[in-house]
Every structure is written in structure tokens, then in C-alpha cells.
Design goal:
Helices cover 27% and strands 26% of the residues. By secondary structure, it is an alpha/beta fold. The strands form 4 sheets. Strands 5-2-1-6-7-9-10 form a 7-stranded mixed beta sheet. The longest helix has 25 residues. It is elongated, with a radius of gyration of 22 Å.
Length: 312
């Protein structure tokens, strides 16, 4: 079965590796153009491109798929199946309709919940105890296609975006292989989504990263976890300087109200304990403005924060 793989970031790499290592015939990889990264703005290829070239798989990086721009290349590749994992571009109808076995997407949520760009982050930020992977046939709507297979992944209290990303990436690779196997065997069953149960996982914006200490400690903690290690939740010290928070734990009395105003530094014993609308959170790792990440204890020893300070 001739497969064209479309994907870009590390999350997609799990699935591409699984297809290659399973001996599937991946005839081409389509990924985003190289982009400048880091302080030096060095032009950097997507992880999927690097791996594909190592495996001798042709790589294509079209600026757009719209208006038939990729149609000639698609006809040359002549895939029977297109697999899409976090590609980052909308597929036009001409691409969706080309392969006789359809286009299958690996999505990082249990659809129809959390359609959209940031399902992994939003699952943690919204306090979901469980998330997962759904494979589905792609349609012209946003993650609206018929569902194929699902696998659940528990979100533990110590998980953050990074750990859930890797768990879902590994799970997604396995779910994809099972989906492809069932497709070959003719046992794959498609189930329409119930649109009335759908929720939307919007792209993470800067406003999502600002910590709102008037929320309860559970909500604040989930926001910090869901945005770590990138782009990171943040607040501001009394002098107005940015303070990012890669890691935190909930205070021992996280369900109890505080006499202090939300954002007030309550203690420096176990880290930087900050009052929330209900309960408190304790910053254990911070990234001060213009500095590298450090343990909260090192930040405290530098006398950068005091009990009674109010973070905003």
C-alpha cells in the first residue's frame, strides 16, 4: 500500500517512525518549510524531514497545497493512502479526495472532545483526568471526520504538556498501526462524530499563559502544567519583571481559602507559595526575565522575592 505521510513536529515523528519500522511503503513525506529558530534564527528543518531524509524517503515542502499547487506532485506519488499527523496546513478537497483509501488523521484527543489546534495542552489546562488518541477519516471540516480507532491515556497529577505529548505520540503510533492493519484486512469501521458533544481546543495565545491567581489552586496548577515546558505560564514580580513558571505543586491546603489576596507570596519554605482564589500553589522551578530556568530555592536565595510580595 503506497502511503504519503504528512506531518511536521516531534509528535508526527512517532507515527512516521512506526510506519517505517513496520515496513510500510512510505513513498513520500510532506512537511512544512524549514523555519528559523533560536536566538541566531538558524534555518532549521522539521524533525519529520530530518528523519525521512535519513531513511531515504523523498521529502516535499510546499508553501501551499491550495489551488492545485501540489496536485501534479500528488499524481506522481500516486498514494493509495495519506496519513496526516500534526501537519499544520489545511488539506484542500483535491488532496483529500485523491487516495482511493482516503486520508487518515491521528488526533491527540478523544473526539469529538477537543477538536482543534491544542488538544493536549487544553486537556491538562481544563483538568481532564483522561485524554487519548483518535484516528479518523479526514473531511473538509476541522477534525469532524468519521472516527476509526481510539486509545485512552490517563493524565496523572505529575504530568505536564511534555510528558502527555510523549505518551500520546507513542500511543498514537500504535493506534495508527492498528488502523492501517484493519484497513488492509477490511475490518475498519467508521463512526460519525456527535457534533453536539464536540468541544474546541483553541490555539494557545499569550493571554492563555498569564496566571490568574483569583482562580482556585487546582485551576492555576493545571494551567502551569499544561503550558510546560513551552510556552510557559507567567506572572510579574512587584517590580514588573516577567517570571515564567515551568513547574509547581499545589499547596497542602489547596482547597482552603486564604486570608491573603490572590497573588500574595505566603511562604518561601518549600518554594514560592502563592495564594490563589482558593488554596495556594508552590512554584518549584522558575525562569526569571532574561535568565535561564532555576530552582525556586536558588531564586529565593538571590532575594528576588519576599513573603508578602504580590505577583500580578
Amino acid at each position: 500500500m503506497r502511503i504519503v505521510f504528512m506531518g511536521t513536529p516531534d509528535f508526527a515523528l512517532f507515527s512516521l517512525k512506526a510506519l517505517v519500522e513496520a515496513g510500510e511503503e512510505v513513498v513520500g513525506v510532506v512537511t512544512q518549510p524549514d523555519k528559523p529558530r533560536g536566538r541566531g534564527y538558524v534555518l532549521t528543518p522539521p524533525p519529520v524531514k530530518t528523519y525521512a531524509l535519513e531513511q531515504g524517503i523523498p521529502v516535499y515542502q510546499p508553501e501551499t497545497l491550495r489551488n492545485g499547487a501540489f496536485d501534479d506532485t500528488l499524481r506522481e506519488l500516486d498514494p493509495e493512502l495519506i496519513v496526516v499527523v500534526a501537519y499544520g496546513k489545511i488539506l484542500p478537497k483535491s488532496v483529500l479526495d485523491y487516495p482511493k483509501l482516503g486520508c487518515i488523521n491521528v488526533h491527540g484527543s478523544l473526539l469529538p472532545a477537543l477538536r482543534g489546534a491544542a488538544p493536549m495542552q487544553r486537556a491538562i489546562m481544563d483538568g481532564h483526568p483522561v485524554t487519548g488518541i483518535t484516528t479518523m477519516y479526514m473531511a473538509e471540516g476541522l477534525d469532524t471526520g468519521d472516527m476509526l480507532l481510539k486509545d485512552e491515556v490517563a493524565i496523572e497529577v505529575e504530568d505536564n504538556f511534555e510528558t502527555i505529548h510523549d505518551k500520546l505520540g507513542l500511543t498514537g503510533a500504535g493506534t495508527l498501526l492498528r488502523t492501517v492493519k484493519a484497513l488492509k484486512e477490511g475490518t475498519l469501521t467508521a463512526t460519525p462524530q456527535d457534533d453536539s458533544l464536540s468541544t474546541y481546543a483553541a490555539k494557545i495565545e499569550k493571554s492563555d499563559c498569564l496566571i490568574d491567581f483569583t482562580a482556585d489552586a487546582h485551576t492555576v496548577h493545571n494551567r502551569i502544567r499544561g503550558l510546560s515546558p513551552m510556552p510557559l505560564a507567567f506572572t510579574h514580580t512587584p517590580d514588573g519583571r516577567l517570571l515564567k513558571v515551568p513547574a509547581a505543586i499545589r499547596g497542602q491546603s489547596s482547597e482552603v481559602g486564604s486570608l491573603a489576596a490572590p497573588g500574595t507570596v505566603l511562604s518561601l519554605e518549600r518554594g514560592i507559595e502563592v495564594a490563589c482564589g482558593t488554596g495556594s500553589v508552590i512554584f518549584t522551578v522558575v525562569t526569571p526575565e532574561g535568565k535561564s530556568r532555576m530552582n525556586a530555592a536558588d531564586y529565593i536565595r538571590g532575594r528576588k522575592v519576599s513573603v508578602g510580595d504580590v505577583l500580578s
